[in-house]
Design brief:
Blueprint (H helix, E strand, L loop, with lengths): L3 H8 L6 E3 L2 E7 L3 H18 L4 E4 L3 E6 L9 H16 L1
Antiparallel strand pairs: 1-2, 2-4, 3-4
Helix pairs in contact: 2-3
């Protein structure tokens, strides 16, 4: 598990992610449900590569992701790595 200082430093490298208790959260907005679903499928591919999985809430035109390491009860480097990969997926479109 990361220290508060390590978390704050790692947050500087992320784009619009928020700290929510012991997790990273971010909402991605889209025009339609189909776009939201396509994004979630791409996030799933990134998550599979890292063997680290976010909590996903799909709405009509948005996707909310929550990332934490449950067995550590907090944030780890893997959470930040996944967040960076998800941002790459979001910018690839």
């Amino acid at each position: 598990m990361l220290t508060l200082q390590e978390i704050n430093e790692a947050m500087e490298d992320l784009e619009n992610w928020a700290l929510e208790m012991n997790a990273l959260s971010k909402v991605f907005s889209f025009g339609h449900f189909r776009e939201s679903l396509e994004f979630v499928n791409k996030v799933g591919e990134a998550a599979e590569k890292l063997s680290h999985y976010p909590e996903v809430l799909i709405d009509f035109d948005s996707v909310r992701l929550l990332i934490t390491t449950r067995h550590e009860s907090g944030l780890t480097r893997k959470d930040f790595e996944l967040a960076r990969e998800i941002d790459k997926v979001a910018h690839a479109d």
